Amino acid sequence: MASRHIHVIGIGAGDPGYLTVQAIEALNDTQVFFAMDKGEAKRDLVALRREICARFIREPGYRFVELPDPPRAKDARYREAVCDWHAARARVWASAIATELAPGEVGAFLAWGDPSLYDSTLRILAAVAAETDISYDVIPGITAVQALTARHRIPLNDVGEPVLITTGRQLRAHGLSGSAVVMLDADCSFRVCPPDTRIWWGAYLGTDDELLLSGTVAEVGERIAALRAKARARHGWIMDTYLVRAAAE
Length: 249
What we know:
By secondary structure, this protein is an alpha/beta fold. It has helices at residues 21-27, 43-56, 78-100, 121-131, 144-152, 168-174, 217-235; strands spanning 4-10, 32-37, 63-68, 106-111, 134-139, 163-167, 179-183, 198-203, 211-216, 240-245. It has a 5-stranded parallel β-sheet with strand order 3-2-4-1-5, sandwiched between helices. The chain has a 5-stranded mixed β-sheet with strand order 6-7-10-8-9, with helices on both faces.
């Protein structure tokens, strides 16, 4: 058996109330929490993780270890830049686990939303586990997709129809057919969709700063873009996602 164990805990989209019972039990099984330090603009993301631990952990004694997040190259090709960034993160994580987590202890990474969905935690941890003596498990969480549809009070799919989960980059490249959830979109790529496309957008889901807008792209597209830019400037970061659905023919 590996001498060190890591929980990857999905902590939901922003509301501490989204945590599952399984996640709370994993929190209480952990001695060391690892968190990426992404700079002053994103300090509140670390602060929320600390708030979750303070709220749900029954016995004190755990500690946080904040890890410097390696920069991602901006002038390289996208996939190469992401691979290099993940490799750099893996080196940081491996070093931290070896020095901060004693044999027999349990550590954890708290994954925003759910670790299965556009999150690099599992890929990076798999690389670490391939080179070091650790084991790990995964506790699923409430995704931004679930939070978005719940807050807008809509089903994710049309009757009997599929839903694509994609990125802004892919939406711009391939357009929209049917329904799609779009994540990782800094460019408001919904503007490439026909004007009568329906959109349900949300940012900072589950937090006090939550923003919601819905309508057709013609009706609310530019309002979303302006609101998104204003919110990002105010907070220094933004997490948003949206569902778009092509108009029926």
